[in-house]
Amino acid sequence: MIRCAWPGDDPLYVSYHDDEWGVPIYDDQLLFAKLILDGAQAGLSWITILRKRDNYWQAFDQFDPQKIAAYDEAKFEQLMNNPGIVRNRQKIRAAIKNAQAYLQLKEELGSFSDFLWDFVDGKPINNGWTTLSQIPAKTPHSEAMSKALKKRGFSFVGPTIVYAFMQAVGMVNDHTVDCFRYEEIEAMSAR
């Protein structure tokens, strides 16, 4: 079985690649959670966050934006002392700020999913990369989404973070064409 080269042979990474990466997600709260996790990844490898992902779900109240938006200093300090997550002040503050921005956006527009998916005209972009080196770190789509998110008060949403997010949630299919998942994801996006 041929798959993208990036997961290597780490079982957790392989499972993530085979079962999750690139599958289109339209659920508001799952998209919010993924955006927070991708922000936590900044400057780190995704496998670091993947290994801590279950801890994040627990520490951040199942990524309930209402709860996160209301976190006080005591909860912030509790998170800063939690060895199960990346204990970075800016990233934890960003998660709280992003929950507040998310709630504001939802109140104004109704759907976080629709807002995000509009940047790709509501359907996944199926790229046709043959090698990992062809895959960009950012695109005009991710730059536009990053700019719009920042304008709405989100942080840790630079164009590179946003592109990684877009890949993960299936807005773009960046499996290499020889990967067994490429055609499966392409079929999902045709629905």
Summarize the topology.
Layout: H1 11-19, H2 28-41, H3 46-59, H4 65-69, H5 73-80, H6 89-109, H7 112-117, E1 125-126, H8 140-151, H9 159-168, E2 172-173, H10 180-190
Parallel strand pairs: 1-2
Structure report:
With 191 residues, the protein is mainly α. It has one domain (24-190): Endonuclease III, domain 1 (Orthogonal Bundle). Helices cover 58% and strands 2% of the residues. The chain is built from 10 helices and 2 strands. The chain has helices spanning 11-19, 28-41, 46-59, 65-69, 73-80, 89-109, 112-117, 140-151, 159-168, 180-190, and strands spanning 125-126, 172-173. It has a two-stranded parallel ribbon with strand order 1-2. Helix 2 crosses helix 3 (46-59) and helix 8 (140-151) crosses helix 9.
The rounded Rg comes to: 16 Å
Total domain units:
1
| Secondary-structure element string | HHHHHHHEHHEH
Biggest sheet architecture? 2 strands, parallel
Determine the strand fraction and express it as a percent band. under 5%
Cα end-to-end separation: 25 Å
Helix content percent band: 55-70%
Low-confidence stretches: none
Shape, please? globular
The main sheet orders its strands as: 1-2
If you consult CATH, what is the topology?
Answer: Endonuclease III, domain 1
